[in-house]
Write a structure and sequence with these properties.
Layout (H helix, E strand, L loop, with lengths): L1 H25 L1 H10 L5 H15 L2 H13 L5 H10 L5 H9 L5 H14 L4 H25 L2 H7 L3 H7 L3 H17 L5 H11 L5 H23 L4 H35 L7 H30 L16 H4 L5 H25 L9 H22 L1
Helix pairs in contact: 1-8, 2-3, 3-5, 4-5, 5-15, 7-8, 11-13, 12-13, 13-14, 13-15, 14-15, 17-18
Length: 390
């Protein structure tokens, strides 16, 4: 029985992840137009174009890493890249909508729409993408419904154990333990927003306290930023600075948002019906409080971005680019990387041209460390260029 519960959780996570991808694919042409227009424009236009790109990506994680990667490749300026990273949290809009649809909309109804759509509109490319988006959204909802139906096995296993009381305890000690456990689990589970799906299923079956559910999602947001800092450690000096500062500021914002959300929960008792045990009330409260955490993280990032964009940049930095594993782990926007492919290849051609020109110079005219820097950059760009072509 526990395998059935885990299978439902995997189905739910599959629907969530794939729906994010199909949402971005549906708006791919719009994203492409914004990238081609460029971001080196007035501040107002840059903000609008960056906002559109981030929102259409529908994934905070991919927008965050894409912003740093484009700056690391020297394709975008510091201001434009910082703006993409600071606005990345707004990409959570689709996940919040999925949370609102949870148990308030039938997933099989969406699958039925897909069946009708395949009969009448299957030839239109946009219609195909829309049907796939609707289909995986239905899969998410069905996975959530199945997970709740199988939740009795979890309650049976927990029984009257200490773990059951620990999860249901909403006091500080238990909530802190859940927060730490969520951070650790997020280092292992690399699926974005896995905690939202798990928190909803455990909260609605009264297995997890409300404060514990908030700690679960807050822990994942903290872990995602710690991973962002860790992965940026291998890049050049300026990217390392950005990775560290943005991560610490974001974590601070999440913690403040978590504390505020815990206090704000008391206000919901005034605005909701007296039947606070109903699924709709609980899920709506939880999603709105999760949005509070995201809002404080967003505010912290924007405050940092205002000052971070003014930092002085050293032109002579190590040629250390992000590894190909970022693409393998799907941390980057495929549409942004498709746009960046030609620019990477152009820079690689320029580096190779300079390396060829070194042979015509007399020995000692170009310092050894400059030659070594060019050769190292050529090797890394060649590896990235090959990865982007795959």
């Amino acid at each position: 029985m526990i395998l059935m519960w885990l299978g439902s959780f995997v189905l739910m996570m599959f629907g969530l992840t794939e729906s994010q991808k199909h949402a971005a694919a549906f708006f791919a042409n719009l994203q492409k137009n914004f990238f081609e227009k460029g971001f080196e424009v007035s501040t107002a236009k840059m903000f609008v174009r960056t906002l559109d790109v981030v929102v259409l990506e529908a994934s905070p994680q991919r927008s965050l890493y894409t912003g740093l990667a484009l700056y690391n490749l020297r394709i975008l300026s510091l201001r434009a890249s910082n703006l993409i990273m600071c606005l990345s949290t707004l990409g959570a809009w689709w996940v919040l909508i999925l949370g609102l649809l949870f148990l308030s909309f039938n997933g099989f109804f969406l699958l039925g729409l897909c069946a009708l759509g395949l009969i009448g509109m299957w030839k239109a490319p946009k219609a195909k993408l829309l049907l796939k988006w609707v289909f995986v959204t239905g899969v998410f909802l069905i996975g959530g419904e199945t997970m709740l139906r199988n939740s009795t096995v979890v309650q049976t296993i927990l029984g009257q154990s200490d773990l059951a009381f620990f999860l249901a305890d909403g006091r500080f000690g238990a909530v802190l333990g859940i927060l730490i456990a969520s951070i650790v689990m997020s280092f292992i589970v690399q699926v974005e927003f896995w905690s939202l799906a798990l928190a909803l299923s455990l909260l609605l079956t009264n297995t997890l306290s409300f404060n514990g559910a908030l700690a679960l999602v807050a822990g994942e947001r903290i872990a995602r930023m710690l991973l962002f800092w860790w992965r940026s450690r291998s890049l050049n000096q300026d990217c390392r600075r950005i990775g560290f500062q943005l991560s610490m500021v974001s974590i601070l914002g999440v913690l403040i948002g978590f504390l505020v959300a815990g206090e704000a929960r008391n206000l919901f008792y005034l605005g909701f019906s007296s039947d606070l045990s109903s699924f709709q009330d609980k899920s709506l409260q939880f999603v709105m409080l999760f949005a509070v955490i995201l809002v404080f993280q967003f505010i912290a990032q924007m405050v940092w971005g205002h000052f971070g964009s003014l930092a002085k940049v050293d032109e002579l930095q190590d040629a250390k680019y992000f590894p190909a594993s970022w693409m393998e782990f799907e941390l980057l926007s495929p549409h942004a990387m498709t746009w960046a492919k030609d620019k990477v290849h152009k820079r690689l051609s320029e580096i190779r041209y300079h390396l060829q020109g070194l042979h015509s110079l007399k020995e000692g005219q170009v310092p050894e460390h400059i030659q070594a820097r060019l050769k190292l950059e050529e090797q890394q760009l060649a590896a990235l260029d090959q990865s982007l072509k795959v």
